[in-house]
Amino acid sequence: MAQLIRIVSYQLQEGVMVRIASNLHRSRVVGRWANTEVEVVEFDQLSDIARPLGSGRLSLRAALRETGGKIDARHQPSRPLEGAYRGNDHLSLIAKDGEAYGHTQFIKGFRCVAVHFPDELLRQACESEETPPAFTTRLMFENRAMWAIADKLAMECVTPKLGRQLYCESLVGQLAVEIARFKQGDALAANKGGLAPYRLRRIVDYIEGHIGEDISMLELAALAELSLPHFMRAFRASTGEAPLRFIMKRRVKRAQALLLETDFPLIKIAHDCGFADQAHMTTCFRRLEGNTPARFRRDRS
């Protein structure tokens, strides 16, 4: 069913006027199995818009297709998550009554599926007496098993097939268990003093994407949503290394690749890999590799 764009409000956040809107979709198909609502939504062209994503249930949202642009999920409309965009098959888990937004500067078309879980099903999946089980909002992460199940549910919503009721009830149960196990993995990491897997992945991706820049420990701690001392301890527990040494090793690894694959001068490689200067790169390289960058290149040429 066609829908007209309806603007709910304009909000001024951190000096930025943000347009908040709902009922933007071109079409919406809903299925219900095991007291779980599955909605598949198609959007036409959108620009400069933020759409609320939260609901009265724990929701898993899977981006299925993006055309001519991209959409990212945010805790606040005006504040993107640094380095969080994962491509057009990302997932977001939004806590019951939690606040989150889907934001785009421009996109020609977008298709997504949202699965809204009842408390009782989550309690059974978590094998917990707690009702409802405690979940925290987690935006823009990857999990192939969850995404594949959500995609199958979307297909069944749009194109019903033989045995749909039994099949979709089974898929909903599997998805609830995957979410419970994902939550359990985070809890185990936290109990060991380490970073949750999705947080560690976010930090490592950020380091790789900014290896040529000055990487601040405070910035990494903020990405991990932890205090600086807690982040330093948790990072070491997860990787076995202090963040600074981890970054230095990544820089040396990047330098090795550039030494072998390019004829860039050493001073440019040092700059591109985030070292203070060529002498700094040589010191770090010798400390980790027992060799200088110049000799490393010469021996392998």
Task: Describe this protein's structure.
With 301 residues, this protein is of the alpha+beta class. The protein has two domains: 6-191, Jelly Rolls (Sandwich); 197-299, Homeodomain-like (Arc Repressor Mutant, subunit A), CATH 1.10.10. The chain has ten helices and eleven strands. The strands form three sheets. It has a six-stranded antiparallel sheet. A three-stranded antiparallel sheet has the order 5-9-7, with no helix packed on it. Strand 3 (27-33) and strand 4 form a beta hairpin. The longest helix is centred in the middle third of the chain and has 28 residues, at 164-191. It is elongated, with a radius of gyration of 23 Å.
Please provide a brief summary of the model.
The protein is of the alpha+beta class and 301 residues long.
Spell out the blueprint of helices and strands:
Blueprint: E1 6-13, E2 16-22, E3 27-33, E4 36-43, E5 46-52, E6 58-67, E7 72-74, E8 91-94, E9 101-107, E10 109-117, H1 119-126, E11 138-141, H2 144-158, H3 164-191, H4 197-209, H5 217-223, H6 228-239, H7 243-261, H8 266-272, H9 278-289, H10 293-299
Antiparallel strand pairs: 1-2, 3-4, 4-10, 5-9, 6-8, 6-10, 7-9, 8-11
Helix pairs in contact: 1-3, 2-3, 5-6, 7-10
- The count of helical stretches stands at 10
From the N-terminal CA to the C-terminal CA, the straight-line distance is 64 Å
Order of helices and strands: EEEEEEEEEEHEHHHHHHHHH
Major β-sheet profile: 6 strands, antiparallel
% residues in beta strands: 15-25%
CATH homologous superfamily caption of the largest domain: Jelly Rolls
Please state the overall shape, judged from the principal axes of the Cα atoms: elongated
Report the radius of gyration as a whole number of Å.
23 Å
Task: Report strand order across the widest sheet.
Answer: 3-4-10-6-8-11
- CATH architectural category of the largest domain: Sandwich
Low-confidence stretches: 1-17
**Which class of the largest domain in CATH terms?**
Mainly Beta
| Structural class by secondary-structure content | alpha+beta
CATH topology of the largest domain: Jelly Rolls
What is the total number of structural domains? 2
Strand tally, please? 11
* Mean of residue pLDDT values: 85
Helix content: 40-55%
